[in-house]
Automatic annotation (TrEMBL):
One of its GO terms (cellular component) is zymogen granule membrane. The lineage of its organism: Eukaryota, Metazoa, Chordata, Craniata, Vertebrata. Functions in exocytosis in pancreatic acinar cells regulating the fusion of zymogen granules with each other. May have a pore-forming activity on membranes and regulate exocytosis in other exocrine tissues. It is a peripheral membrane protein. Residues 1-19 form the signal peptide. GO terms for biological process: exocytosis. This is Syncollin. It comes from Pyxicephalus adspersus (African bullfrog). It is found in: Zymogen granule lumen; Zymogen granule membrane. PANTHER family: SYNCOLLIN. Keywords: Cytoplasmic vesicle, Disulfide bond, Exocytosis, Membrane, Signal.
């Protein structure tokens, strides 16, 4: 039992410390289904340590005017899969500012302007993800 616990807990523990953004060309969930995007709780100025913390998966067609519980103002980095587009809004109900992210890695949402003075770190409150 003790061994089992260690085996299960270790990957979770290291996930946050040694995070690495997944490639847009190979973005799948834990059971191998193709994702539209994966959004992460943390970012890092060292890009090879970005995409840390817990994550939220978006499938093709996922339309969330209201974030899943606990996810408002929480996302700090993200990856959009090839041939997919993630549209985000700064306020729930698809209000406030909006921005479209095409396929690629966004290591720090902080680096993307949101309105005149803001940025997108911890500012996503609606999203819509589609793939062609
Ligand atoms: C995105 O923001 C622009 C500028 O405020 C606005 O004109 C447009 O309608 C918005 N698009 C969506 C889909 O909310
Ligand atoms: C993003 O926002 C959170 C909450 O305000 C903050 O703790 C974190 O340092 C911010 N990240 C960056 C890269 O600014």
């Amino acid at each position: 039992m003790k061994l089992l616990c260690s085996v299960l807990l270790l990957p979770l523990f290291f996930e946050g410390l040694l995070a690495q953004c997944p490639a847009p060309s190979n973005l799948v969930n834990d059971v191998g289904e193709k994702l539209c995007a994966r959004m992460f709780e943390h970012s890092n100025m060292y890009f090879d340590q970005s995409c840390g913390g817990v994550y939220l998966d978006a499938m093709n067609g996922d339309d969330f005017p209201y974030m899943p519980s606990g996810w408002g103002n929480k996302i700090s980095s993200l990856v959009v899969a090839n041939r997919c587009t993630l549209k985000v809004w700064s306020k729930s109900g698809k209000a406030g500012n909006n921005r479209t992210f095409n396929a690629g890695v966004v290591y720090q949402l902080k680096d993307y302007a949101n309105g005149l003075f803001g940025d997108w770190n911890d500012s996503i409150n609606s999203y819509y993800c589609t793939c062609t």
